[in-house]
């Protein structure tokens, strides 16, 4: 599985996941389980929704070298 997520994208997903989880706990709602999706994709560094569109926010090897 090729990584297609950059650091800014990962941090945003982790932050969003935490917010969703906290709101789910506060409002005692099952919707808080949706936090699994952004947090899971952030830790895997792979977003399946990016694949059909050819999107990648990860830095390429060329960008890292310069």
Write a short abstract of this structure:
This protein is mainly α.
How helical, in percent, are the residues? Answer: 40-55%
The radius of gyration computed from the alpha-carbon positions, rounded to a whole number of angstroms, is 14 Å
Question: In this structure, how is the largest beta sheet organized?
Answer: none
Described by the principal axes of the CA atoms, the overall outline is elongated
Distance between the first and last residues' Cα = 25 Å
Mean pLDDT: 91
How many structural domains are formed by the residues? Answer: 1
Written as H for each helix and E for each strand, in order along the chain, the element string is: HHH
Find the count of extended strands (DSSP E, 2+ residues): 0
The stretches of 5 or more residues where confidence is low (pLDDT under 50) are none
> β content, as a range?
under 5%
Note the total helix count.
3
Structural class estimated from helices and strands:
mainly alpha
What does this entry look like structurally?
With 66 residues, this protein is mainly α. It has one domain (1-47). Helix content is 52%, strand content 0%. The protein is built from 3 helices and no strands. The mean pLDDT is 91.
Characteristic terms for this protein:
single chain; 66 residues; mainly alpha; 52% helix; 0% strand; elongated
How do the helices and strands line up, and which of them pair or pack?
Blueprint: H1 7-26, H2 36-44, H3 61-65
Helix pairs in contact: 1-2
């Amino acid at each position: 599985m090729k990584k297609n997520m950059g650091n800014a994208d990962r941090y945003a997903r982790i932050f969003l996941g935490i917010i969703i989880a906290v709101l789910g706990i506060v409002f005692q709602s099952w919707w808080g389980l949706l936090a699994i999706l952004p947090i899971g994709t952030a830790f895997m560094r792979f977003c399946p929704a990016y694949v059909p569109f050819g999107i990648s926010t990860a830095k390429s090897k060329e960008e890292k070298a310069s």
